[in-house]
Design a protein that fits this description.
about 120 residues; single chain; eight-stranded antiparallel barrel; mainly beta; globular; about 60% strand
Length: about 120
């Protein structure tokens, strides 16, 4: 009985036991893109361009129906780039997502919309 309890405790404490990955697809100029958000202890990570770019996302709000993520990115040198992103993922129904990217340095704003699936 003790061995079963230990194995169960190890399984439940394993990070992979609670792994959650959202794959969100969106289109731009007839090209489809997939953004992959992987849950970590502190929020979510996202890799792009063959792991050349890594983004860290903070969970701003989460309940049964929605997941809201935030990320602020700055460049390595002064004035290189700076932007803030908010991503909202609908957990049920159509699993829609909306991402808004705001860059005050070039007065730009990009809004991306698509659908997500959750992979566990």
């Amino acid at each position: 009985m003790r061995i079963i309890s230990i194995l169960l405790a190890l399984l439940l404490s394993s990070p992979s036991a609670f792994a959650e990955t959202w794959i969100c697809s969106w289109s731009d100029d007839d090209e489809t893109f997939n953004d992959t958000y992987v849950r970590t202890v502190n929020g979510f990570n996202e890799s792009r361009d063959g792991d050349a770019l890594d983004f860290t996302w903070e969970v701003v709000h989460e309940d049964e129906s929605v997941l809201v993520l935030h990320s602020t990115i700055t460049g390595n040198s002064i004035g290189s780039y700076f932007y803030t992103s908010i991503t909202q993922i609908e957990k049920h129904g159509e699993n829609r997502f909306v991402q808004s990217i705001i860059s005050p340095m070039n007065s730009g704003q990009i809004i991306t919309e698509g659908e997500c699936i959750v992979v566990q």
